[in-house]
Amino acid sequence: QVQLVESGGGLVQAGESLRLACTASGVTFPTYTMGWFRQAPGKGREFVAVIGWTGGTALYADSVKGRFTISRDNAKKTVYLQMNSLKPEDTAVYSCAARRFATPSPGLAYDSWGQGTQVTVSS
Fold it and tell me: What is the pLDDT of residue 107?
């Protein structure tokens, strides 16, 4: 079973940046499509971004387009989420997820999930 561990969260002021990382183990990482999701207090889980197993296709939620960038390093079995120009409404627990040989889409169902990392943006 694939194991996913997120890192890189923290407390920042509005307008600053963070880079999240999600490292996988127990899996042939280059064959997996990887996604990022977030969940704010009292709200449901929201799609943020997804990147295909080839690394050539990336999709983003409208709320983060132009500010967030998803990327992957297959040698390190890691997917990243670069978050720039952060806003208070970006505050949430961010989680990564994996699905083997999947076509990237916002509604993709995933097989495995990480535990999440907290991102807090103050005004």
Answer: 86
Residues of the chain with pLDDT under 70: 1
- Nearest Cα neighbor of 3 from 21, 20, 22, 26 is 26
The DSSP result for the chain, as a single string, is --EEEEE--EEEETT--EEEEEEEESS-GGGEEEEEEEE-TTS-EEEEEEE-TTS--EEE-TTTTTTEEEEEEGGGTEEEEEE-S--GGG-EEEEEEEEETPPP-TT---SEE---EEEEEE-
* Token pair recorded at residue 5: 């561990």
Q: Which amino acid is at 36?
A: W
Cβ neighbourhood burial of 37 (10 Å; 0-12, 13-18, 19+): buried
CA distances from 111 to 2, 82, 119 (A): 9, 23, 24
| pLDDT of the residue at 1 | 67
Q: Return the number of other C-beta atoms located less than 10 Å from residue 45's C-beta.
A: 15
Both tokens of 21, joined, read: 């990382």
